[in-house]
Structure formats: structure tokens, C-alpha cells
Amino acid sequence: MRRLVQISYVRLWLQFFGAGVVVCQVSLALLRPGIHDRLILAIANIAAAILIVAGTLRMPPESRIARLWPPAVTLTGLAVVGAMTTGLSPALGGFFVLTFVYVGLTQSSWVSLWLVAPATVSWLLINRPVDHTIVARLPVALSLWVLLAELLSRVTAQHQAHKDRLAHQATRDALTGLRNRHGLEELIGGASVGDALIFLDLDNFKTVNDLLGHDIGDQVLADLGRIVLAVLRPHDIAVRYGGDELLLVLPETPTEGAETLVRRLRRGWSASHPELTFSVGISVVDRGGGAGAAKEADDALYVAKQRGRNRTELAGRHPAVVIPGQARPVEDRVN
Predict the structure, then answer these.
(1) Which CATH fold would you assign to the domain 184-314?
(2) Is the pLDDT of residue 60 over 70?
(3) How far is Cα of residue 138 from the mean position of the Cα atoms in its chain?
(4) Which pLDDT belongs to residue 5?
């Protein structure tokens, strides 16, 4: 399966603006073939090299605040260049458009308004000497820049919201509202020492499907998911492990805390479906890791089924009852 690559907007800015500086020098050579300001050319060459090289480096995770420094650097650089020389507006004007495009792609709505003042200063400096024509063009340019940034900001926000919905749907079980098995190995393997793992399985659920039909069975599972979500704490995780079996991951929860949560689940469940019970196996992650704790919790659930159902068993508390000469396969589930 292909991995989705996270876009680094700062790296894109470095690469595009580095290339932009090179293009700007070409434009200057065409517009002003007699230019002899070696200082400006030297600064431009150094800036282009730094930007392009930096754009190839690995960047740390980016926040919205961190993504604000590229437009700030751009507008400051334009102001400095404008203060040092005149007549460069044809070559540098495109940088304003790129700056507001970048802000629209990386920031929330109306952040572009914060750039109006520095963009105005930079615009006036690179358009020196300022006359009434330049002043008349300024409001139009600012309006177009802000409009462009806001349109991109809203389109980007809608795209991100749609992507978040798809990601949520990809990891959720439609029937119970719990997480599905997507990423289950990473979830179990990433469990830390002290986290509680709980396997929960409805007792005799197959009888419900056989006697009352799968529609009623689906409703029972939906009710189970609703009650589990109502009881769990915000940082707890519930996964539909398969069929009517659930896996609960309780971060930093001792055995007593896990048992307390199971008792709350039983009270809520018995109030909704007194005719149905469930069995539970509990294990707490130790140095053996999450995979070992998951197996222990699953074995404890098996013991609970063997000992009469409608009960909670702790990992290692009782030996499993296994028929001599037979090993229980991983896929074997006792109703």
C-alpha cells in the first residue's frame, strides 16, 4: 500500500522562491542590461543558493505559526531590496502574488489581512518613486492578493475537512461506531507499560442471530458500541475486534481501574439488554509488550467463557482449561 506523503509547505516555499530569485535576476538582466549594482546581484545569488539548498533538507513538523515566517521573510526582503535600489517592480511584483498564495494554502481564513500593512510598505518601496498612479494601483493589488489568499484558504479548509471525514470513515466500524481493525497491530504494539487491555465478548450472541435474525443482532451490536462509547474516558480506545468481540485499550490504567470500568459497562448494558451478558478478559501491559498482554487478555476471556460466562477474568489469575491434546487456535472464539 502506498504511503501518503505529508506536504512540507516551508520546503515548497524555499524551493519556489529560490527559483524565483534566479528568474528575477534573469528579468533584471533583460529589463536593465546595464545594471552594475554588484552588491544586489551578490545578495541575490547567495539568497537563491541558500533557499534552494535549504528546500532539499528535511524539515521538522510544521505548525501554522511556524509557516508564517516565509511570507514575513519575503516581504522584509522585498522591502530591503526596494530601499536599496529603484525600478524593480516589474521583476519583483510576482513575489507578492506568491506570498499571498502561500498564505492561503497554509493559514486559516483572514490571516492574510495581517500581511496587508507589511505588503503595502514593501510594495511602495519597490515602486519608488511613488506617484499618484502607484497609489491608485495599490488598493486594487491588495484586494486581489487578499481575495486570492482567502479563496485558497477556504478551498484548502474544505479539502482538509473532506480528507478528515474520509480518514475517520476508514478507521471506524459503521455498525458500532467503534474503531475497526485498521491499524490494530500498531495500536497493540504501541501500548505502553501500565496500559490495560480488555477483551469483551457477548455471551451466546450467535443464538440472537439464529433466533431473532441478523437485523436484531445488528441492533444489539449498535447498542453495545453506543454504551461502550458512553462509558469510556476520552483517551480510551475501543475497537471492534471481530463479530461481537471488542478490544478496549485503557492508557495508564491499573487492574482495579479496568475492573471498575467493566462494572460500569455491565450496569449500562444490563439496563439496556438484561437478557444478554458478556464475558471479559483483562491484562495490563508489562515489559513483555502490548502483543503479549493482548494474548493474555484473550486467554483470560477464554477462561471466562469456560468458567460459565458473564464474568471477568484477569490474566494469570487462573490457568486456562484446555482439552488435552488440543491447542486453541487464535481464530477460535467461544460464544
Answers:
(1) Alpha-Beta Plaits (3.30.70)
(2) no
(3) 39
(4) 40
